Each structure stands twice: as structure tokens, then as C-alpha cells.
């Protein structure tokens, strides 16, 4: 039984579905990437998993239990933490207040501080005054403070320098390995993702077009890129290993 | 009645003002709480606090502690119900819809009070000790000082609650990003209920504590919301400190004005001090501060962000007008007098709703002073025709000109102040106009109505009671005059919507910045909209004067403005058809008459139904009844077409 199992997911913003018959899974302790060109439906899929977009058909189970009938807040309490594309931080709060809200304690748990030592230094700063990288770190820390069984991160590297992005992947690996948390990320930079994740699902035209382990996918990457991922998938100078 | 003006008197009156200030402060901090958690400007706060105070006074025989506890429970329930029944369904609606819903709650609460306890003042037993204390040789009622102290303690507790507890942090977080809160797993609904309960309990508590020191009378208490809104607005709907300080300031100023009114040199009218000064002060404070601060206020307050009601172009306006005119003429000729009166009232209401269509529907400016503008027309007409004795058509023309000028006066702050702030400012302006002008014997008519001479053309009188076609009021001839005026106004607004200017108005409504960027002169467009809205309200005011053969201050009050605004929104504020539907729905109009005569519902219940209808309409059909009906008809047609094809 997978940690997250999505079957036949059909969802959209009005009557017309944007994603159709999506099937994907995430195991405990596994890092999975959802790849796809702009507009392929990745964000919509994640929103449907966390409940912010309604389901028209399909089934989502977490640890074998269906979550489809739960509100977004209940899904969050059931163990799904979603870091959305816009990060949805609270700009007028301080870093400490954000952590306190997420953890119910005044300090972040030791293992979160281990992953993000900078949190202590930023304590009293207002979120609005943080840099992009610091905000992404806080968004991840806020989600991890809830000790999720599934962490979903949309466009983690959006607007961040490659160096900063490269620092986040090891953190996610550790979260998966040490906490047994399943991690599902959407990542534009295919070659970066392939370096770190265990498995990928490739979306195109609102559905999953290919799935497989990194070993299976690596030889096909040029074919997949040409067929599904579009020009943004090709490595830029900074991404080259 | 004169008193001396020494330091002792000043100190005593300052202390008295602290009591009033405490009541304002208690309600205003509640307003800040609900605004921050739900984005609602709760204009009903005064009315619901009054409801709690009435319940308390009703239970006075059972003893103060019991009555107080039950009052607090009622306050908590009212707060929770308001959120669950009204604002939760409106969570995704724009600020306009929420404001209108809140006006509906105000009208409902007000109607319940009048139905249950009547409009006369009611006594409430004191909760706080009534002894006086000696302060610098002046004896001061202890309860005022206690009230002030309690408000300060309550505010400090609130501040600590929102600053330091997880509940407070969660509330602030949700105001920042509701999505972020939900994704974190917080129950935003529960947070909002809790905040509404806190605000309502706070308002109810200070309502009960202060009721014995002020008059427990429905309108007075409901209109407390004007100084309350002033305080909350100056606190930017976020700072408890500034809000409470402003509230105390207004309370003290209010009290000092009362002291000055007792001085022999204070202007006297008919043996009493010039009235309305206390209502003028919050308005002026608000107008000047908002004008000076202008854009510096939080965006959420200034933007009437979409969704606003839609404003589709009129279709087949010409034939519809012709058919309507024929039907109305036939109705005037054939209907018995009571139905004729209801028809005239509906036509009058439609003209007033048309003015709301222009100012709110087309340019997105919320004005709660439409009745004040109409009243300006009525009163100037009465003066020009009566005191100056000028012949027809000078009085109505002067009246309409006065209405345009009054409306333009409101457009001056509207050039810098937008959205909800303007709504609050016009509400304060409406109160000031009613008390300082219409109800002031110096410039208005005091408590009595001012006579309006009937229309006279070529020696023939066209008045509701004496005319060329039937003598039973309202005469058919007068009905024709009202119909002609309505048709003229409909034509004007329909033309406006199709004109270039109308397009620019809608552009301003959807985004002032975008409109300005495409070369629209936003200030000029707003000014023109206020002028045209004023013209329409002026026509309505003049016709009111003729209908009742006089004008009186109570017809042109702010609560009537709010009721009209609600009715206009009910009908649909974006279209001419909406204004006509609004006309059907007005108090004493056709629907009202049908319901009272056919179903035997006593007329006293009309305000209650009107209030509930406003709330329900906002929730059920935010574009107004007219657009919804048109939509339904269209989708029915589409479905038929589809069926026909298959
Ligand atoms: N709020 C929305 N309303 C309507 N359509 C939307 C909305 N958000 C996204 N879409 C449409 O859904 C499709 C998939 O979008 P999205 O899931 O954001 O793709 P991705 O994240 O893969 O770039 C796009 O065609 C987009 O235009
Ligand atoms: Mg996306």
C-alpha cells in the first residue's frame, strides 16, 4: 500500500476538467518529481491532492484511507502539507510567530532546526522582509513543523538562484530518509530533479504520460523532453552537473 | 438655560464624555476585530449592541447579574449567527456585497427592536455604581470613569490576545493569507466565529454598561455606528490604540459641545441651542482626516475590488419604455386610490434607485447620503417656493440644482477617498445633513414639516389632492407628472450607459488605475457621476415634496438612505431594470401594498422583511434580482434553442 495513491483523478476550475484520469503514487520515504511543460496540469493536480481544487472524479488515498471527502484543512491535519506555488506565507507575522502557529510550541522541533539552522537567526524578522530563498525555507519549515506524512511542494525553485535550490534538495532527501515522509515536488529543471529524486511522473496535456524510476527515465530524457517537457526542460549552463 | 464655564465644568463634562467615549470605543474595537478577521465593515454593530441592551433592560426585573449574563449570551449568539448565516456564505464576495449585507442586518435588528420595544426610549437599570467621586473638587459620576477604565482594560486584553496568543497569531495569519492558514490545517471558520463572538460580546457588554448613561432608543443607538466607524476608520481598522483614543476624543468633544450649548452666547434657535453640532463634528473630523490622509490608508479599505455587480448594456430599451409607459398610464387611470398611491411611491423609489445605479452601479462609489441629497432638493424647493414665494418652475429647479451641488460636495472627498471609506463618510454626512440642516429650525424645519406649494402651470394646479383629473389623492394628473419624470430619468440613465461617458464610468469602476492609464480623467468622470446621481436624487426629492405636500427631516435620514441603498442593490444596482425592480420593492410601494392587503401582514413588519430581503438577496444573487431574472430567462431561451436543434 502506497503512502499516497491517486487514481483516475479528474479536476478543474469550472465544469470543464483541466486534468483527466491522473494516476500517480508516492511511497513512504520516497522523493517523487512531477514533471511537465507549462500548463500541463501539475499545479492543478497538487491542488486537487490538498483539496483546494474540487474533484470531479477519481480517488485519493493517504495511507490507504480515502481523503476525497475531507476539507483542505482536514487533509492538512491528516498529514498532507502543501507548499503552494505562491508559498502563501503570512507577510505581517514574524518568523517566530509563523513557526509557533505551525508547531504549537514556541520553538521549532530540534530536527527542523537541524535542517534549517538559519531559522534561529531570523527569529524576530517579519516575513515580508525575508529574501526569496529565506521565504522558501520558511515555507518548507512551516510545513515540516506539522510533521507531515506527505509533503507536496510546487515549483520549489521558482525565482531562486540555482545555488539556493541545490541546498534544498538534500534537505528534502533527509526529510524523506529520516522522517519516512513521502515528498512530491513539481520541478521545472528536469536535470536537477533527476539528480535527486527516486521516481518521476511526467504530465502532458492534463494527464500522466509517463512514469518510472530515475534509472528507467534517464535514458529516455531527451525523447521525453522533446515530446512533453518543452524548451524549459533543457539544461541551462547553471544546471549542468 | 445657561451654566458657567469654569475649569470645574470642563472637567466634569470631560468625565461625562468619557462614558460616551467608552461606548464608542467598545463598539469600535469590535469593528476592528471583525474587519480584520472577515473583511466586513459591520455597520450593524450599533444596532446589535442595542438589541443586547434591550434584552438586558427587558430582564431587569430578574436582577442585574442574571440579565447581564443573558445579555452576554445573546450577544455571543448574535455574533456567531451573523457570521454563520451571513458572512460565511459571503466569504468570497466583494466588500460591497458584505457592506450591503451588513446594512441588511442593521435594518433587520432595527426592525426587531421597533417591533418588540417600540421607538420610544426605554430605561435600563444601572450596572455600575451610581455614586459620585470627588476629583479636584468636582463631583463626577463614578460609572463614567469605571466605563472608561473597563474599555481601556478590555482593549489592552484584546491587544495582548492578538499579539501573543496562538489564537491571535492565527487570526492575523488568516487575514494575511486564508489559503496559507487552510493549508496549515487551521479551521478558519472556527477562528472567524470566535472573532465575531468576541466583537459582539464586546459591543453588547458596553451597550449594556452604557445604556443607563445614554438613551436606550433604537435610532440613537443604531446611529452610534457613525462615531464608531469614524474611530475605527481613523485607526485604519487595525490599530486598537488609535481607535480607542479617537473614540474617547469624540466622546469628550461631544460632551464639551453639550457644555458650550449651555452657554448664553451659543447660537440659539427658537429658544434652544443650535442643534446638530454634535453630528456635524464626526463628519468634519472624518472628512478632513480622510481627505488629508487620502491614499495612505490600507488598500483593502480603498479598493472596491471586483466582484462588483455586473452592468450589462440595456437591450431593447425604447420598446420596453413605451410598453411601460402605456401600462403605467392605464394603471393610473384604472387603479383605486390606494394602489395608485403605491404605484406613485414605487415610481418615486425607482427614480432614487436610478441615482444609486449611476453613482454605485456605474462608477462604483458607495454613497449612503442619497436621501440627504434628495432632502437638499426638497428643502431648497420648500424655501424657494415658500419663504421666497417664487413661482413654478423655479422652486423645483432650484431644488434639483441644490441636490446636484450637495452631491458635488460629496464628490470632493470622493476624488481622494474611495470604496468603503466613502461609504462611511457619506453615512456621517447623511446624519449631519439631517440633524444640522433639515431638522434644524434655523435652516430646515425643525421637527415640523415644511410646506411645499403644489405645481401650478397656466393657473392650473397639479397636486396629489386637487387636479385636472380626479380629486381623490393621489390624482391621476399628478401620477402622470411622476411617470413623466421617471421616464425622463430612465431615458437619461439608459442613454448614459450606452454613451462614451458610461463606458468611461465602468472603466473607473473596474479599476481606477487602469482607467487612468488609458487616458480616462478619473476625477472628472467621478464628479460627473456624482452630478448626474445628484440630479436624479434631486428629482426624487422634489417629487417627494410634492407627493407629501411638504418635507420633513425624518424622511431624509441616513437609515432611509441605507434602506434605499439596500433596495437598489436588491433590484440590481447595475441596470435600469434593476432600479425599476427596486422601485417595486420600496416601503409603501407596489409589492409592499400587495403583501399587506392580500396577505394581511401588518405594515409594521415591512422594515423587518426589507432587512431580511436585503441580506438574503446579497447572499443569493449578488447581481441583484433584475440581472438574475434576465439571466434565468436567457438560459431558458438557450436551453430551448438547444432542445429545438436536437
Ligand atoms: N484558476 C484557474 N482557472 C481556470 N483555469 C486555470 C486556473 N489555473 C490554471 N488553469 C488552467 O489549467 C491548466 C493547467 O494549469 P496548471 O495546473 O497551473 O499547469 P502547470 O502547473 O503544469 O503549469 C492551464 O491551461 C491553465 O490555463
Ligand atoms: Mg504550476
From TrEMBL, chain A:
One of its GO terms (biological process) is L-amino acid transport. GO terms for molecular function: ATP binding; ATP hydrolysis activity; branched-chain amino acid transmembrane transporter activity. Keywords: Amino-acid transport, ATP-binding, Nucleotide-binding, Transport. Residues 1-230 form the ABC transporter domain. It holds the Pfam family ABC_tran. InterPro entries: AAA+_ATPase, ABC_transporter-like_ATP-bd, ABC_transporter-like_CS, BCAA_Transport_ATP-bd_LivF, P-loop_NTPase. It comes from the Bacteria. PANTHER family: HIGH-AFFINITY BRANCHED-CHAIN AMINO ACID TRANSPORT ATP-BINDING PROTEIN LIVF. Belongs to the ABC transporter superfamily. This is Branched-chain amino acid transport system ATP-binding protein. It comes from Streptosporangium saharense. The lineage of its organism: Bacteria, Bacillati, Actinomycetota, Actinomycetes, Streptosporangiales.
TrEMBL record, chain B:
GO terms for cellular component: plasma membrane. It is found in: Cell membrane. One of its GO terms (biological process) is amino acid transport. InterPro entries: ABC_transp_permease, BCAA_transport_permease, LivM-like. The chain crosses the membrane at residues 12-33, 40-57, 63-87, 99-119, 145-162, 193-213, 219-237, 244-262, 317-337, 343-363, 392-412, 419-438, 477-496, 528-549, 607-630. One of its GO terms (molecular function) is branched-chain amino acid transmembrane transporter activity. Coiled coil: none annotated. Pfam families: BPD_transp_2 (PF02653). It comes from the Bacteria. Its main location: membrane. It is a multi-pass membrane protein. Keywords: Amino-acid transport, Cell membrane, Membrane, Transmembrane, Transmembrane helix, Transport. Belongs to the binding-protein-dependent transport system permease family. LivHM subfamily. This is Branched-chain amino acid transport system permease protein. It comes from Streptosporangium saharense.
